[in-house]
Write a structure and sequence with these properties.
The structure is a single chain. The protein has 16 helices and nine strands. It is mostly helical. The chain folds into two domains: 223 residues, no CATH class; 114 residues, Orthogonal Bundle (Cytochrome Bc1 Complex, Chain D, domain 2), CATH 1.10.760. Strand 4 and strand 5 form a beta hairpin. Helix 15 packs across helix 16. The protein starts with 8 loop residues before the first helix and ends in a 6-residue tail after the last helix.
Length: 427
């Protein structure tokens, strides 16, 4: 082969152009690969943001995506979610990936200030750096929303952020999720989603007077403050939890909002609508596998034998409750409470009906509601509200009836309980 020095000027020029074209081709291919890779990261970040249900807090109903400003009522005052769009002035457009990860991992903002725990950083600390970076890339890709953050409205002394140091010492334990080598890959994936991105303990563990929850009561269920819905136990307890649910039942409920065991309403309907319906079948099944493995806890609420007074109240209300049920409810839920699947859930042997807390069935009778519209259940059937047509005593009677009929083991509902929930916010 002739050396370069022996090439004619024309041949040399042609050779240089060929090499330059080759280099340009390689660079273009590399750039295309990098672009594809970045697009993949953004797509993964969008998926993870769905898993973390970021939209639920950081987007107002009918508002602009991630513009913030959604009010969150707490026993300490009102918090307003921040703008997390890519806007450089009012959002997180000037944040780096490292600063975003520090916020997720430590619960500290870009300027080092402590975040209020309405942001579930005690769960998000378990998220890996790679997943945090993907979420960051996605948020930087969404259109910027210029919307200044609204100041929180908290009572003294809860508006003093330095007090959060005490809260953090009790309830914040930094650290990414560490897989359990004794468990399966599927179980570990479920644990990562439930304990980390899904932040399920925020609702399904009772919140104490300090706004925290104890690991010893994890997933035992509890009343959601201010919203007045009861988040049920997720443990394997057969009376209050998922002990006799199948994996498929749990997957159906989380993915579509309905299953043969019941349907989701209230705050959980929003979680399914905004988050779970978008997750892969494998991820939802991993969540179900992990939840099914949660051990029952000795402290979980158990139904105690009814007192004489309770039995007398049940005997007084049951005839009226049956009359109302037969006239208003049986057309959908059937005469023996067996329901008419898949549209109308069963009430017989329904744990959400029999739980120690009667909040959820009372609210459903008063306010009605719809299961979420999902890709697997795009046209859900709804429950009409009866607050305008039934008195407090009539609601107490029909809820008492469905909690105690057909072998159900619930306790009677009082008129006072119904009256207190009439003014509860509709969520």
């Amino acid at each position: 082969m002739p050396s370069f020095r022996k090439l004619t000027p024309v041949t040399a020029l042609a050779t240089l152009l060929l090499r330059a074209a080759t280099l340009v081709g390689v660079s273009t291919a590399q750039a295309g690969t990098l672009a594809d890779s970045h697009a993949d990261v953004i797509a993964r970040g969008e998926y993870l943001a769905r898993a973390g249900d970021c939209i639920a807090c950081h987007t107002l109903p009918a508002g602009k995506l991630f513009g913030g400003g959604r009010p969150m009522e707490t026993p300490f005052g009102t918090l307003y979610s921040p703008n997390i769009s890519s806007d450089k002035d009012t959002g997180i457009g000037k944040w780096s990936a490292r600063e975003f990860y520090r916020m997720m991992h430590t619960g500290k903002s870009r300027d080092g200030s402590l975040l209020y725990p309405a942001m579930p950083f005690a769960s998000y600390t378990k998220i890996t750096r790679a997943d945090s970076d993907a979420i960051y890339a996605y948020l930087q890709s969404v259109p910027p929303i210029h919307q200044p953050n609204r100041p929180h409205e908290l009572r003294f002394p809860f508006n003093q952020r330095q007090l959060l140091r005490g809260w953090r010492s009790l309830y914040m334990h930094e650290g990414e999720y560490q897989p359990d080598p004794t468990q399966s890959v599927e179980w570990n994936r479920g644990a990562y989603l439930v304990e980390g991105l899904g932040h399920c303990t925020m609702c399904h563990t009772a919140i104490n007077a300090l706004g925290g929850n104890s690991p010893s009561k994890q997933f035992e269920g509890g009343l959601i403050p201010m919203q007045n819905w009861y988040a049920p136990s997720l443990t394997s307890n057969k009376e209050a939890g998922l002990g006799d649910w199948s994996i498929d039942d749990i997957v159906d409920l989380l993915h579509s909002g309905v299953s043969r065991r019941g349907a989701v309403y209230g705050p959980m309907a929003e979680v399914v609508y905004d988050s779970f319906q978008y997750l892969s079948e494998d991820d939802v099944r991993a969540v179900a596998v992990y939840l099914k493995a949660l051990p029952a806890r000795s402290g979980e609420a158990q139904q105690s034998p009814p007192s004489v007074a309770v039995t007398e109240e049940q005997n007084r209300l049951t005839p009226l409750g049956k009359k109302i049920y037969d006239a208003q409810c049986s057309i959908c839920h059937a005469a023996q409470g067996q329901g008419k699947l898949p549209n109308f859930p069963p009430l017989a042997d329904n744990q959400s009906i029999q739980m120690s807390s009667s909040v959820n069935p009372i609210r459903m009778v008063l306010n009605g509601g719809y299961a979420p519209g999902t890709s697997k259940n795009p046209m859900p059937y709804g429950m009409p509200p009866f607050a305008q047509t039934l008195s407090d005593e009539e609601v107490a009677a029909v809820v008492t009836y469905i909690r105690t009929a057909w072998g159900n083991h619930g306790t009677p509902v009082t008129v006072k309980e119904v009256n207190e929930l009439r003014s509860a916010p509709i969520f």
